[in-house]
Amino acid sequence: MPSFTEARNIILDRVTPLGIERVGILEAAGRVLAEDVVAPWEMPLCDNSAMDGFAVRAADCATIPAALKVTGYIPAGGEVTGAVESGCAIRIMTGAPLPPGCDAVVPVEETEDDGAAIRVVAPVKERQHIRFKGEDVATGETVIPAGTLIQPPEVSMLASFGKALVPVFRKARVAILSTGDELVELGEPPVPGKIINSNTLSLAAAVRQCGAEPIVIGIARDNRESHREKLAEGLKADALITSAGVSAGDRDLVRDVLAEMGVEQIFWKVDMKPGGPTAFGMHGAKPVFSLPGNPVSTMVTFELFARPALLRMMGHRRVVRPFVKAILREDAKKKPGKVNFLRVQVTVQEGRFVASTAGDQHTGILRTMVRANGLALLPLEASIVHAGSEVDLMLLRDDVTMLER
Ligand SMILES: Nc1nc2c(c(=O)[nH]1)N[C@H]1C(S)=C(S)[C@@H](COP(=O)(O)OP(=O)(O)OC[C@H]3O[C@@H](n4cnc5c(N)ncnc54)[C@H](O)[C@@H]3O)O[C@H]1N2
Ligand code: MOO
């Protein structure tokens, strides 16, 4: 039986990025760039002013204060009409092209202005406050390498080079199928013995949260016919995630019917709790995740196994959440022989993560999952991890390190 890291590596070794598509620049934000972006021109395109002030010749300002005659004005977006002659200055705004003859810009705060003339009152160094042609980016330089996650700075760079359409890795289309005769859909009243199909929705939310596109297949009932029909539909997507029907019950048909449909089972059961009965298979190049049905186990196994794979399929390089060190606040007991993921509430205290149990750790307890924002790893052979011990912690929510105000 693989450990959870072995299981995750087995999965990651089998999935590869999907194809490439070109999308509008805003649509590209949050996606992964699929080709290097090379600068088609240099940036900036010409020498320009970094300050609102005056274009001068530094040599004219060797003695301070220096009186200079103002002979012109160049606003941002304006054109250069003449050169800076000796003993003169041209009023210039930030971003405006530099006139010939000028080798420094004096900020307006370092001058006294009496209309037609100015007095420069602070020392001037040659080249000061000038943004030089090509100093940021040279023509032909790779400004964003393939594999970069596109965020606002990349959007700015792409826009600066006129890239309205951006090559990105395709979004994974992820089929989600729940199984079980006990399920009713949201909107139908649950009666004793029935439960609302929440796994489809939590999985769809999780799929969407990692940037992929959920395709809801619905519910396969506990018979082979229904499984065949729904699984066939699910296998058309880039990846298939099923929930429930993978443990030892006499109606746990998922693995069996998947095998019948040509899905090669790569592993079944992982040395961990929750999520022990997880199965993983491949249908050609498509990954098939068969997650256990307990809503907590479904979410934890999505997080540990499906999310990294979907991220890799969408071209991400950073696909695995890291473990950080945390101090456990209370004793945590477990059965030796399995790694346990304890659902914890994480706080940051004096710069350190502190993990406190989020409540009853039975896998049927959904409330504990709702309260948790991290998973603390309790090692295989431990039967108790004492309060005050250091544990490996995986943060599950991006707002863990944000402060309330
Ligand atoms: N004899 C054994 N029994 C069980 C084992 C085992 O190893 N031997 N493993 C237990 C563990 S651990 C888990 S986890 C569950 C997983 O079982 P399945 O994946 O086969 O899931 P089900 O039994 O069908 O359902 C489990 C639980 O989850 C609820 N559920 C199912 N689907 C949904 C859904 N779409 N939305 C909300 N809740 C759902 C279902 O009603 C059950 O309560 O098996 C243990 N048993
Ligand atoms: O996946 Mo089962 O919940 O280990 O509890």
Automatic annotation (TrEMBL):
GO terms for biological process: Mo-molybdopterin cofactor biosynthetic process. Its EC number is 2.10.1.1. Pathway: Cofactor biosynthesis; molybdopterin biosynthesis. Keywords: Ligase, Magnesium, Metal-binding, Molybdenum, Molybdenum cofactor biosynthesis, Transferase. GO terms for molecular function: ligase activity; metal ion binding; molybdopterin molybdotransferase activity. Its cofactor is Mg(2+). It is an enzyme of class 2 (transferase). Residues 175-312 form the MoaB/Mog domain. The keyword Repeat does not apply. Belongs to the MoeA family. This is Molybdopterin molybdenumtransferase. It comes from Geobacter metallireducens (strain ATCC 53774 / DSM 7210 / GS-15).
